[in-house]
Amino acid sequence: MRDLGLDYEAAGHGIQSAIRFEMTKIGFPDSGMLVNFLKHLRVAVDMRASDTHGLASLLIEKGLISGEEYAEAMRLAANEELARYEDHIREAYGLPKGASFR
């Protein structure tokens, strides 16, 4: 991993600025509620990914888990997230018990 010497908040702000720059380059307007929402959503997703990568890398490097164990845990977590969404959507929108997004 590359260490730019930044603290967590400064790196996060840099990520936000880079995302906003890219958004303007691909045609998003400079302002607006929807544009700001999309930027914040993208920053949150990217920061969550970097947090997960940092933690997983540390645990694997220290020999506490293997890459294979991490991959299996991620697979199971994705399955749980899908099941949670399916439960929520069935309850919130009255879809039948067997309805799924698979």
Write a brief structural summary:
This protein has 102 residues and is mainly alpha-helical. The chain is built from 3 helices and no strands.
Q: Give the strand tally.
A: 0
Overall number of domains: 2
Largest sheet: none
Can you give the mean pLDDT?
Answer: 94
Order of helices and strands: HHH
Distance between the termini: 35 Å
Count of runs of 4 or more consecutive helical residues: 3
| Uncertain parts | none
What's the shape? flat
Question: Which percent bin holds the helix content?
Answer: over 70%
Radius of gyration: 19 Å
Please identify the structural class as seen in this structure.
mainly alpha
- Give the strand content: under 5%
Task: Walk me through this protein's architecture.
- The protein is an all-alpha fold and 102 residues long.
- It folds into two domains: 7-65, no CATH class; 66-102.
- It is 73% helix and 0% strand.
- It has helices spanning 8-25, 33-61, 67-93.
- Helix 1 packs across helix 2.
- It is flat.
- It starts with 7 loop residues before the first helix and ends in a 9-residue tail after the last helix.
- The model has no long low-confidence stretch (mean pLDDT 94).
